[in-house]
Amino acid sequence: MEKSFIFAVCDKTQEDIQNASRCISEFYADKNIQVEIQQFDNTDKILDAFRSQNNFAAVFMGMNSMDEVDTAWILRKIAPKCPIIIMSYCGDYSLEGYRIDACAYWLKPFDEKKINSTLERLWNSEIAG
Length: 129
Hints:
- By secondary structure, this protein is an alpha/beta fold.
- The protein has one domain: Response regulator (Rossmann fold, 3-Layer(aba) Sandwich).
- The protein has 5 helices and 5 strands, in the order E-H-E-H-E-H-E-H-E-H.
- The chain has helices at 14-30, 43-52, 66-78, 94-100, 112-127, and strands spanning 4-10, 34-40, 58-62, 84-88, 104-107.
- Helix 2 (43-52) packs parallel to helix 3 (66-78).
């Protein structure tokens, strides 16, 4: 494996963290790319991680409250070019996702086809390019 990427997955739901992490791992394993996935179950932890290392290839973030919207804005300021993928149970924050310049905005429940489509887009543009 020649390249390596670090992804952040943040959600309050362990099941969604595990599903997103599994899909990311499988997608890049098929491309013979090593990935590290850091998992976060609250916004303070992901902010601390971004402040200390700021070298994530992308962040997958659950957004179901204003706390998570605020966190996404802070992440955008810390890492302006890092792709942010928002996962949400409702479309209420879709406008904020657009303003934050999210790479993708998915409505839950988790859909493997959506994540793979987004990963393919990332692979073809920001990450591989």
